[in-house]
Design brief:
The complex is a heterodimer of chains A (470) and B (336).
Chain A: E1 14-22, E2 27-36, E3 39-45, E4 60-63, E5 65-70, H1 83-92, E6 95-100, H2 111-124, E7 129-132, H3 148-153, E8 159-160, H4 169-182, E9 186-188, H5 193-196, E10 201-202, H6 205-210, E11 214-215, H7 217-237, E12 243-245, H8 251-262, E13 267-271, H9 273-277, H10 281-284, H11 327-339, E14 344-345, H12 354-357, H13 374-384, H14 389-396, H15 398-404, E15 422-432, E16 451-461, E17 464-468
Parallel strand pairs in A: 1-4, 5-6, 6-7, 8-9, 9-12, 10-11, 12-13, 13-14
Antiparallel strand pairs in A: 1-2, 2-3, 4-15, 15-16, 16-17
Helix pairs in contact in A: 4-7, 7-8, 8-11
Chain B: H1 31-48, E1 62-67, H2 73-84, E2 88-93, H3 105-114, E3 119-124, H4 129-136, E4 140-146, H5 152-165, E5 175-179, H6 186-197, E6 201-205, H7 214-220, E7 228-230, H8 233-237, E8 242-245, H9 251-254, H10 261-268, H11 272-275, E9 283-285, H12 298-302, H13 308-332
Helix pairs in contact in B: 1-13, 2-13, 3-4, 5-6, 5-13
The chains are: A alpha/beta (470), B alpha/beta (336).
């Protein structure tokens, strides 16, 4: 790379050599990318002597990452995050596209609120593309449909009441049908609230020992089964209907998705970086990756018995919805990514203020700030849990793009002649996660204080510099 | 190690092997540490037997008792224990403090520290709260009960009481039954740790809805720490050496966990008839407060085998021991 560029500048005069991974073309290998005047003028896949010294452990060149699920809190909770800080966090994390969830205050349930958010996006000047999901129901109250047609015309890329499920099955049916005709998916947060009232941690061994109210698997698996059943009814009338299940975290729920896909139903799902890499034992004070917490017999180890508890228990940065699950559920998330049951990794970036988090565990607000740690966590899974690099990159780029199905004009790829949309990472370099190291206002990550491998060096979005380490 | 009147005023001997600044749970206590607590409690019992049951061991130490939940037994027990050690005691009932104005736990603890507290005894309805307090408090935190999670001093006084009633003071292989609303019980959880650590044959019994999650604990735990979970009260009580009954709350009916208190009393209440299946010398315990006629029959509560009031007396001695050991650890660390 030549001269240091500033954020916002059109990328120019850059020559980047490294290990390229391009799921769109199916290519992976030594590569050289040349960027001039914002355009990826040349993407050369190197062989022979030219490829000397370039391997997967060295600099990685990936298409800009796509996040289907992030919370930027504006309008209504700007202390926790704003569009400006959220987009900065996205860029720092290597994301060139972020899809914003509508659970703001007011909710994005009609075009005027959408215009407000779009205004904030434009004013930020960030090169990162911010797409928006509209609410499924008016005010996210679950009683009536939001102004779906109006929102679709204004360019939302999906509908979600995330933060909560669509409570009424009949509303979900109508929403799937109505949105299907608009060519947009319903993104459901699968949870049965009657089973999760007061719940604090995933039901199981750790929750029992710690005296935390359990969050039953059935709360997610049952909701997923319900939504899939409703989808099956809807597609008979509306073949274009689409259901996307977000932050699926349990083996049982993933099994339902797998069966539904096998039956040909138009359902997709995503898993979060924290659900594939962290487990409920962290609440007890363990700090090992999920794949390190599995015994040879495939069962979760006992953290009280094998010296795994190294930190104070009840850390509220671990409180999230859905809750961190057992090591076997985390393994199921990884398996789902490998076999395609899970189409994408989405961060569910949920920044919160210190005030909302530095309280008693059961009273802490749910959410993990994840945009900036997603890529290092996924690379850790590649290194330690046998997730193939190409598949990992797919789930962060073309996978989410397929869920969006062209809406928002998201086509991740290292294509010659197009505006450069890529991220350059040094997977061997480490950085320590500290509040200062995060661009997000949300410092609520359980990885604070941890050294992670995977440093983003450069993020180019639409030909402009979105983040540079210089 | 003795705490007799001939000790020079103010001097606190550095206790051997006690290095914990806080006592938030009993999970990590090793058998030697538990033994140390038991021995220290013996000495405190001797102090309590004197005409003036006081020693100057904690003279000049400020103990603040912060209870977010109503309590008679534990709160008063800690206050008496601290005063017997000559500590300066401040008692805060959260409902009448700024907590009712919405002051956070973190701010409350910082304020208490600024007011000079060296030790904080806390009870809180949310599991894990004492860990948050310990994070921001410069002195020692003693958990007086947090949510459903832990009640260290109760489990230790239960252990002390059981040891005093079993031959040779050994729990090894003895059948001990905890009976009642285990799901919501921090007393049960802490007792699981201490009783399995001492090698007891532990049985957890109650209606299935109130045992939720314990089978996972029983089967996932380390090999040496297994226990039995059952809803069969007759099987549980058969040949039992110790039975600990737990309180059933009316609220459990409202949340759909039990049909009625009447049905609970009929099917799980500890009555003289049910106790016939147990060992004739079976010790009967209850952490209190009791709902006589529900989880325990009135005549069982006062029978010779019942040690319920002894538990209360032992509670003061155990809490004196814990305050003493924690204060000693502080001194050994140079008061940090």
């Amino acid at each position: 790379m030549s001269e240091p560029a500033r954020v916002g500048d059109v990328a120019d005069g850059l020559i980047i050599r490294g290990w390229g991974v391009d799921p769109e073309s199916g290519r992976e290998g030594a590569a050289e990318a040349t960027v001039n005047d914002g355009i990826l003028t040349r993407m050369t896949w190197l062989t022979g002597a030219a490829a000397q010294g370039l391997e997967p452990g060295g600099t990685l060149i990936l298409p800009g990452l796509v996040d289907l699920h992030a919370h930027f809190r504006e309008p209504g909770n700007e202390d926790a995050e704003t569009v400006v800080t959220g987009l900065a966090a996205a860029a720092h994390g290597g994301f060139t596209t972020a899809c914003l969830m509508p659970n703001t205050t007011p909710a994005i349930d009609e075009a005027s609120v959408l215009a407000l958010v779009r205004g904030a996006v434009a004013a930020s000047g960030s090169p990162v593309r911010a797409l928006v999901h509209g609410a499924v129901t008016a005010g996210r109250r679950g009683d009536t449909l939001s102004a779906m047609g109006e929102l679709a015309d204004a360019g939302v890329v999906g509908f979600s009441d995330d933060g909560a499920p669509v409570r009424s099955a009949s509303i979900l049916h109508n929403a799937l049908a109505y949105a299907g005709a608009l060519g947009l998916p319903i993104i459901d947060h699968p949870e049965d609230p009657s089973l999760t009232e007061g719940a604090e941690a995933s039901e199981g061994y750790v929750a029992t020992v710690l005296g935390l109210k359990g969050w039953p698997v059935a709360a997610e698996a049952g909701s997923v089964a319900r939504s899939i059943a409703i989808l099956a009814d809807v597609v008979r009338d509306v073949p274009g209907a689409r259901l996307h299940l977000t932050h699926v975290s349990t083996a049982a729920a993933l099994d339902h998705v797998r069966a539904a896909k096998a039956a040909g139903l138009p359902v997709t799902c995503d898993v979060t970086p924290h659900h594939l890499s962290l487990t409920d034992e962290w609440i007890a004070g363990a700090r090992r990756w999920a794949w390190q917490a599995l015994g040879a017999d495939g069962r979760a180890r006992d953290p009280w018995a094998d010296g795994a508890l190294v930190a104070h228990p009840f850390d509220t940065s671990l409180r999230v919805n859905p809750p961190l699950r057992s090591a076997t559920d985390a393994a199921a998330c990884l398996a789902a990514l490998r076999d395609g049951t899970a189409d994408a990794i989405a961060t569910d970036h949920a920044p919160h203020t210190e005030v909302d988090k530095h309280v008693e565990f059961g009273w802490a607000i749910n959410g993990i700030s994840g945009l900036e740690t997603a890529l290092p966590v996924v690379l850790a899974a590649v290194a330690g849990a046998g997730l193939p690099l190409a598949r990992a990159v797919e789930t962060l780029t073309t996978g989410p793009a397929r869920v969006l199905a062209g809406r928002g004009d998201v086509w991740p790829g290292l294509r010659t002649g197009e505006p450069a949309d890529l991220v350059v990472i040094d997977p061997a370099a480490s950085w320590t996660v500290t509040p200062e190291s995060l661009a997000s206002k949300g410092k609520n990550t359980p990885l604070l204080g941890r050294s992670l491998r995977g440093v983003v060096r450069l993020t180019l979005a639409g030909g402009r510099v979105a983040y540079t380490v210089d | 190690m003795s705490i007799g009147a001939d000790r020079p005023e103010g001097a606190i001997p550095a206790p051997v092997h006690w290095a914990h600044r806080h006592l938030l749970d009993v999970d990590g206590l090793t058998p030697p540490e538990i033994d140390l607590i038991m021995k220290t409690t013996d000495e405190m019992r001797d102090v309590l037997a004197r005409p003036i049951p006081k020693v100057p061991a904690l003279r000049g130490v400020s103990v603040t008792i912060l209870f977010y939940e109503a309590s008679t037994r534990t709160r008063v027990s800690f206050e008496v224990a601290a005063k017997n050690l000559s500590a300066d005691v401040v008692n805060i009932a959260a409902a009448s403090s700024s907590v009712s104005k919405g002051e956070s736990l973190v701010d409350t603890v910082r304020t208490i520290e600024a007011l000079g507290a060296d030790m904080l005894v806390m009870r809180h309805p949310v599991s894990g709260a004492p860990y948050l307090a310990a994070e921001v408090f410069g002195g020692s935190v003693l958990n007086g009960g947090d949510g459903w999670h832990a009640h260290p001093s109760q489990a230790l006084l239960d252990l002390y009481t059981i040891r005093s009633r079993l031959p040779g003071g050994s729990l090894q292989g003895r059948k001990i039954v905890i009976l009642g609303d285990v799901l919501h019980s921090r007393v049960a959880r802490s007792n699981v740790w201490t009783l399995t650590a001492m090698g007891a044959d532990l049985w957890i019994c109650g209606p299935t809805t109130l045992l939720r999650g314990f089978e996972a604990w029983a089967s996932c735990g380390a090999a040496g720490r297994r226990f039995t979970v059952t809803s069969d009260v007759d099987a549980a009580l058969r040949d039992a050496d110790v039975v600990m009954a737990l309180r059933i709350q009316k609220e459990r009916m409202a949340s759909g966990l039990l049909p009625s208190l009447r049905e609970y009393a009929a099917r799980y209440g500890l009555t003289k008839t049910r106790l016939r299946a147990a060992n004739p010398d079976c010790v009967v315990m209850h952490p209190g407060p009791m709902n006589e006629g529900v989880e325990i029959a009135a005549d069982v509560a006062v029978a010779p085998r019942s040690v319920i009031t002894t538990q209360v007396t032992n509670g003061v001695a155990v809490r004196m021991a814990l305050l003493y050991l924690l204060a000693g650890a502080r001194h050994a660390e140079g008061g940090s």
